[in-house]
Amino acid sequence: MDGNGRWAKARGLPRTAGHYQGAETVRQVVEASIRNDITHLTLFGFSSENWKRPATEINDLMGLLRLYLRREIARLHDNGVRLSVIGERHRLAPDIVELIEGAERQTRDNSRLRLTIALSYGGRMDIVNAARQLAQRVAQGELRAEDIDEAMFAGNLSTADMPDPDLVIRTSGEMRISNFLLWQFAYTEMIFVDKHWPEFSAADFSAALAEYQGRNRRYGAAG
């Protein structure tokens, strides 16, 4: 969800305004996902690298996150959405962690849409953490190194109970994946959109889905 700050700057607004408008886009995309019977939607909300941003902007983003968790969970719950969060929670403020855990408990039995938000998340760290867990099991004699395969490795990632993404959409014209779901993106289709995230609409989302449906996914085979 890229381009909140640039969208605001182009309009002479503070970056915070872009983040608030971006939150409205999140609501529209979640609703569009439900209408299109999508079962899993993962949003890259805050990367492990985003901690390098100015403290004032980080504080504004965390304030918006608090607001979202307080105001939107009832709406998500009523619409059958299950919320989950992946990433390094220990880097978040305790009250935010408490809000996340409460939202996950409240929505855990919902099955219409699995909405996952990546917060303080990095794909490389996700892989490192999985490797550490398996290495510990080998060191303790619970597992032989030669028994580790791709399925077992994937089962130790933060997305262990989720399917790999079929499609990734990145806004704002940036053509990279920026340390997001690196293992999981092995065969994910990619669509890059020139619009900034705050101006990305449900119609743009539908257009991306239509483009995806026209692609031939061969997974390395001849087709």
TrEMBL record:
Binds 2 magnesium ions per subunit. SUPFAM superfamilies: Undecaprenyl diphosphate synthase (SSF64005). Mg(2+) binds at residues 2, 189. GO terms for molecular function: transferase activity. Its EC number is 2.5.1.-. Substrate binds at residues 3-7, 15, 19, 47-49, 51, 53, 170, 176-178. HAMAP family: ISPT. Belongs to the UPP synthase family. This is Isoprenyl transferase. It comes from Dongia soli. The lineage of its organism: Bacteria, Pseudomonadati, Pseudomonadota, Alphaproteobacteria, Rhodospirillales.
